[in-house]
Amino acid sequence: MAIYPDLQEKTVLVTGGASGIGAALVQAFADQGSRVGFLDRDGRAGAELTEKLTAEARRVLFVPVDLRDIEGLRAGVEDVRTKLGPITVLVNNAAHDERHLTEEVTEDDFDDRIATNFKHQFFASQAVLPDMKAAGGSIICMSSISWMAGFGGMPVYTAAKSAVLGLVRSLARDFGPYEIRVNAISPGWIMTKRQLDLWLTPEADAMREERQALKRRLLPEDVAKLALFLASDDAGAITSQNYIIDGGWV
Fold first, then answer.
1. Which helix (H) or strand (E) holds 22?
2. Rounded distance between C-alpha atoms, residue 72 and residue 74, angstroms
3. CA dihedral in degrees (139, 88, 23, 58; nearest 10)?
4. In this structure, what DSSP letter does residue 38 have?
5. For the residues 146-164, what does the mean pLDDT come to?
6. Can you tell me the distance from the alpha carbon of 159 to that of 166, in angstroms, rounded to the nearest whole number?
7. Which residues partner with 182 through β-bridges?
């Protein structure tokens, strides 16, 4: 990966950082010399990643948090701020693409999926604003190509992911005067362990290859490379944008 000297010693916060794309983000920022705090409800995976990175002499802090609990989220942000310093990079990564049918979604199901995939992005952004108003910063919000490609079988998830772009554009406008940049990344089918275990059948893989312009499988590290750029000073003139990283699917 490219090295961005300005990311060294910056405090970075990643939500949903214990596994999948989130773990690749934590690793990538830690490799830049950033101080990385990450929040996740999976305590075992968070502890394992922390042990691995600590052994590599990386400076990381794992805070177990269920991001649906907004008070817990705020406390987790404060913990990272207190122990690692003012947060000037936030990656709103946490999500869960659980499949669901419209006919079977209850009101509680709906609220839970919005909380899991969208609500915490707003409140995490709100929580880091005092630091970023003082020093500038970069907020990166994860969307998805699922709603652009018209995927079925998960309508509340796709609705939440489309809402991310409205949030990004509004926050970018409101906080641009403070040199706070806000952008979105919309991944395609990224081959995390979860995707490999649950969804990658030979038939699905053939469909992926047919739909993508690039024929290789996309990896979490591909997303991390883009996030590093958007967090760095090299992207200092970029805000209110959505970057699609799907190998040419949509």
1. helix 20-31
2. 5
3. 160
4. E
5. 91
6. 11
7. 139
Q: Which of 4, 157, 178, 243 does the annotation list as catalytic?
A: 157
The residue among 66, 87, 69 whose CA lies nearest residue 77 is 87
Give the total number of structural domains in the chain: 1
| pLDDT digits 0-9 by tens, 109-138 | 999 999 999 999 999 999 999 999 999 999
Q: Judging by beta carbons within 10 Å of its beta carbon (0-12, 13-18, 19+), is residue 114 exposed, middle or buried?
A: middle
CA dihedral for 200, 203, 209, 211, sign (positive or negative)? negative
Contact status, residue 167 vs residue 225, Cβ threshold 8 Å: no
Q: How many helices (H) and strands (E) does the chain have?
A: 9, 7
DSSP secondary structure of 215-250: -SPB-HHHHHHHHHHHHSGGGTT--S-EEEESSS--
Q: What is the mean pLDDT of residues 19-48?
A: 98
| CATH classification of the domain holding 124 | 3.40.50.720
Q: Is 157 considered catalytic here?
A: yes
Alpha-carbon torsion, ordered 218, 116, 35, 128, to 10 deg: 130
In a domain, 207, yes or no: no
Q: Quick check: is 198 in a domain?
A: no
Sign for the pseudo-dihedral over CA of 40, 45, 51, 52: negative
Structural domain including 109 reads 5-192+220-244
For residue range 198-226, what is the model confidence (pLDDT) as tens digits?
878 999 999 999 999 999 999 999 999 99
18 found inside a domain: yes
